[in-house]
Amino acid sequence: MTQSNLPAPEAAAPETKDLVGLSREDLALAFEAVGVPERAMRMRVNQVWHWIYHRGERDFEAMTTLAKDLRKTLAENFHIGRPHVIDSQSSIDGTRKWLIRFSDGQEVETVYIPEEERGTLCVSSQVGCTLTCKFCHTGTQKLVRNLTSGEIMAQVLLARDELGEWPSPTDGRLLSNIVMMGMGEPLYNFDNVAKAVNIMMDPEGISLSRRRITLSTAGVVPMIERAGTEIGTNLAISLHAVRDEVRDVIVPINKKYKISELLAACQAYPGLSNARRITFEYVMLKGVNDSLADARELVRLISGIPAKVNLIPFNPWPGAPYECSDWEQIEAFADIVYRAGYASPVRTPRGRDIMAACGQLKSESQKQRAAERMAELRSKDMQFQPS
Ligand code: SAH
Asked: What is the pTM of this model?
């Protein structure tokens, strides 16, 4: 089934330009193009920025720090967009998942995970994913496209709307952390991710510190250094195996960039220190990568890299070819890593009941829409039946 067969999105894209996801420079250019005087442009950009990203305002008329005629010009030419929420689900553990649709009908999922000390938003960077990691549900989705910086930012703004968290509080935030761990490979969409993450960190807007943002990659080795210098957030690596033969199968990008190259890039990640460690993610797959010999090899491989290891119990999905390791095995594995001097927390699965846990995300409406389409066709058939 191709996307073109699907019904058009309900809301047609407004004709005006969406300001969300534009850098300050882009904003200045956009304003200049509609005749906003060059004089005091920087101040105008700052004011609008503040309204969009600090206050969450979407109505230009309410931007009272701007002169009336400027508000009018802006309203005539621009809008401050939000994606369409198609479905919103809450887990019994408080995790929330939004299925959102962009103006071209493409969809992604965004997940909010509340914890005692923080609230983390798991943001998608692509529709689908090209990596086809064997244990990941998103990788089974055929259709893939990059999200724009606006579409990445929009997920954050939408979550803040839903949490009612405007203006940006200084502390005690519900949304305090962001992980680029949703659908997609962020380093395959570098420019848009970099632009969006820089907007998230901007002190006059959302204002999240780089220490509260984590970018996760399956190992696009040539982009890792740039990620350090141009984005500079925490880095997480989806390692998942310690031998190339195994990793080639479960994380196929390994066929291109081997474990040794990946670890060399990690070692060279700009700004690495004991206070700023790389997180190695390791999904526990029964009988595949979870032996105690694997644990010892893991410790050997990462020695010398300031690191912590995040063990992720495998989250099942329909038709998945793996099982989660037994709990005792996960504990024994974690113990070896811990004794070698690395923090080795086991990630508590969150939102499994709503398919919101790691690796379970998918534009599920693909299935749902197919069903709707069938129903529609059937009803059309009925109409055309000769009476
Ligand atoms: N493409 C990036 C961003 C996705 S992050 C990356 O690979 O890092 C999502 C994390 O969840 C990755 O570590 C991924 O390997 C892991 N994951 C995927 N499917 C999973 C599953 N079924 N159970 C547990 N973790 C999974």
From this structure: 0.89
